[in-house]
């Protein structure tokens, strides 16, 4: 008899299709350079988004076949647990040594925060790296070296991407972010392995709780080679270098066209949502 949640632990159904989706051209080996390339390609090709659980609360499946079909086969977007569990499967197919951790998203808050996120700690040649492709436009675009507390580790192109620096506070690691000299605490976590099933209640809370940040409106984000693109509340914001452009998506056709042309998402929004 299969384990009740065994589908969370299944391998990627078609690694070639996944790599084609993110246009990864490198070799399949568990190296640091390849990890950097995989994260970059994933974050610039697969958008973070809550289209499947907003406005109606709906908990997305964390079964690997379901995530793979939704994001890779049907060109959808996903929440943080979907994105990272899919990426964990890709890391496993490359032979990386890693373990998942539960993460709190702080974003400058000094108050206690509910854990609503996850990431991977990857060990390469004895060094530990934090890998996360599910935090939207706040994601580190490259692995963050956990044992380097002295230097800012740029994600990619300033000023649009965050640089990260880890700090230890007892048994907790806190990441400070720096974006165009605007610094704040970003995430915190205990570097202890957890089971994938531990993410099930956190995923449910994040997708359905009224006070969850991703339940406040439509969110779709992706990195580009020189900036970011995001839709928040039907407003499309594009950054490129130091330029920023905003425009409201006023019709369903305009919204759906932007999803496909900018984010590569096949989706049909209900026109009634734009009239609210």
What does this structure look like?
- The protein has 276 residues and is an alpha+beta fold.
- It has one domain (13-274): 2-Layer Sandwich (Arylamine N-acetyltransferase fold), CATH 3.30.2140.
- The protein has 7 helices and 13 strands.
- The chain has helices spanning 15-21, 32-45, 64-73, 80-94, 199-208, 252-263, 271-274, and strands at 48-49, 97-105, 117-124, 127-131, 144-145, 153-154, 163-169, 172-179, 182-189, 219-224, 227-232, 235-240, 243-248.
- The chain has an 8-stranded antiparallel beta sheet. The protein has a 5-stranded antiparallel beta sheet with strand order 1-10-11-12-13.
- Helix 3 (64-73) packs across helix 4.
- The longest helix has 15 residues, at 80-94.
Characterize this entry briefly.
The chain is α+β, with helices and mostly antiparallel strands and 276 residues long. The chain is built from seven helices and 13 strands. The chain has a single domain (13-274), classed as 2-Layer Sandwich (Arylamine N-acetyltransferase fold).
Order of helices and strands: HHEHHEEEEEEEEHEEEEHH
**Cα radius of gyration in angstroms:** 18 Å
Total strand segments: 13
Could you give the distance between the termini?
48 Å
Supply the number of structural domains: 1
The description of the largest β-sheet is:
8 strands, antiparallel
Helical run tally: 7
* CATH-derived topology: Arylamine N-acetyltransferase fold
CATH class: Alpha Beta
Helical residue percent band = 25-40%
- Kindly estimate the percentage of residues that lie in beta strands according to DSSP: 25-35%
Categorize the overall geometry: globular
Q: What's the arrangement of strands in the largest beta sheet? A: 5-4-3-2-9-8-7-6
- Round the mean pLDDT to the nearest integer and report it: 90
CATH architecture term: 2-Layer Sandwich
Helix-and-strand structural type? alpha+beta
Unreliable runs, pLDDT <50, ≥5 residues?
none
């Amino acid at each position: 008899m299969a384990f009740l949640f065994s589908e969370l632990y299944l391998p990627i159904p078609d690694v070639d299709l996944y790599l084609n989706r993110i246009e990864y051209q490198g070799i399949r080996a568990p190296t640091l350079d390849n990890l950097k390339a995989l994260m970059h390609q994933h974050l610039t090709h697969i958008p973070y988004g809550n289209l499947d659980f907003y406005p109606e609360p709906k908990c997305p499946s964390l079964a690997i076949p379901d995530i793979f079909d939704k994001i890779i086969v049907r060109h959808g977007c996903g929440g943080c647990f979907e994105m990272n569990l899919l990426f964990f499967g890709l890391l496993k197919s490359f032979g990386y040594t890693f373990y998942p951790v539960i993460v709190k998203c702080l974003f400058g808050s000094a108050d206690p925060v509910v854990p609503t996120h996850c990431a991977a700690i990857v060990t390469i040649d004895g060094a530990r790296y934090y890998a996360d492709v599910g935090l939207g436009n706040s994601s580190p675009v490259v692995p963050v070296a956990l044992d380097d507390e002295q230097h800012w580790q740029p994600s990619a192109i300033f000023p649009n991407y965050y640089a990260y620096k880890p700090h230890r506070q007892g048994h907790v690691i806190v990441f400070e972010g720096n974006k165009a000299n605007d610094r704040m605490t970003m995430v915190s976590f205990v570097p202890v392995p957890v089971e994938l099933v531990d993410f099930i209640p956190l995923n449910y809370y994040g997708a359905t709780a009224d006070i969850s940040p991703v339940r406040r409106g439509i969110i779709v984000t992706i990195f580009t080679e020189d900036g970011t693109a995001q839709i928040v509340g039907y407003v499309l914001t594009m950054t490129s270098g130091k330029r920023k452009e905003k425009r409201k998506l006023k019709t369903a056709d305009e919204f759906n066209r932007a999803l496909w042309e900018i984010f590569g998402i096949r989706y049909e929004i209900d026109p009634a949502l734009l009239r609210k």
